[in-house]
Amino acid sequence: MAAPLIEIKDLHVSIEGKKILNGLTLTVNAGETHAIMGPNGSGKSTLSYAVMGHPKYKIESGQILYRGEDIAGWAPNERAVKGLFLAFQYPVAVPGVSVINFLRSILKNRRGVDLPLKEFRKELKDNMKALQMDSAFANRYLNDGFSGGEKKRLEILQMALLKPSVAFLDEMDSGLDIDALRIVSEGINRLSSPEHAVVVITHYQRLLDYVKPGFVHVLAGGRIVRSGGPDLALELEKKGYEWIASPVAGAAS
């Protein structure tokens, strides 16, 4: 039996001396879509940063295994090259670096080869068309002056080109109107396959109306306090988090 794509075991993480994750355990297999939900400050973004190796997030104890291998010693760029991906909630602007040059560079690193320009442009054009992005977008500077919707589409465009084995998507619905949410969600769904996995981090049900998770987890106090199926997200939408976020109410089901 193949090892899980991601297996997180009793993970404890701190940032600048403050403990954020307190024994988080999660297993994600190929072909699965998971949703991580929870109130502000529960550790959702910390989880994704820890998986990607952000240097400010210190792993105090526990393990993150990728295809059965402990990735503690991997640099962030090595994790990305080997198939881990994070779509940021707040992507950083990089004036002076064009979108097209950035995308060609990261694609070369991921695939290990420099695609002929004509082939790259066709692949880029096809994916931009699917995301309803104007071709002129490719010549703009990376996230410089972008709207919230444009930033999120660029994150999904990166994912579409890189085809990561595991994609962590941090609050991709924030700042999106209904049309942009639908387009971004369709881009996420195109990655779904028996070989890939998606972990969606969100506060709200509305993204999950488009991206259907098989598993929903509630994070509170730095650990998963409840796991279930799609109905759990609907229940959270009706009741909020207070009923489930305490250690007593949050006994794993």
DSSP E strands, number: 12
- State mean pLDDT (0 to 100 scale): 92
Spatial arrangement of strands, main beta sheet: 6-9-10-3-11-12
The CATH homologous superfamily is called: P-loop containing nucleotide triphosphate hydrolases
Key phrases:
7 helices, globular, Rossmann fold, alpha/beta, 253 residues, disordered C terminus
Question: Summary?
Answer:
This protein has helices at 44-52, 76-81, 99-111, 117-130, 148-162, 178-191, 230-239, and strands at 6-15, 18-28, 33-37, 57-66, 69-70, 84-87, 94-98, 141-142, 166-170, 197-201, 215-220, 223-228.
Task: Describe the secondary structure blueprint for this structure.
Elements: E1 6-15, E2 18-28, E3 33-37, H1 44-52, E4 57-66, E5 69-70, H2 76-81, E6 84-87, E7 94-98, H3 99-111, H4 117-130, E8 141-142, H5 148-162, E9 166-170, H6 178-191, E10 197-201, E11 215-220, E12 223-228, H7 230-239
Parallel strand pairs: 3-10, 3-11, 6-9, 9-10
Antiparallel strand pairs: 1-2, 1-4, 4-5, 7-8, 11-12
Commentary on this structure:
By secondary structure, the chain is α/β, with parallel strands linked by helices. The chain has a single domain (6-239), classed as Rossmann fold, CATH 3.40.50.300. Helix content is 32%, strand content 28%. It has seven helices and twelve strands. It has helices at 44-52, 76-81, 99-111, 117-130, 148-162, 178-191, 230-239; strands spanning 6-15, 18-28, 33-37, 57-66, 69-70, 84-87, 94-98, 141-142, 166-170, 197-201, 215-220, 223-228. It has a six-stranded mixed sheet with strand order 6-9-10-3-11-12, with helices on both faces. It has a four-stranded antiparallel sheet with strand order 2-1-4-5. A two-stranded antiparallel ribbon has the order 7-8. A hairpin with a 2-residue loop joins strand 11 and strand 12 (223-228). Helix 5 (148-162) packs parallel to helix 6. The radius of gyration is 18 Å and the shape is globular. The model is unreliable at 247-253 (pLDDT under 50).
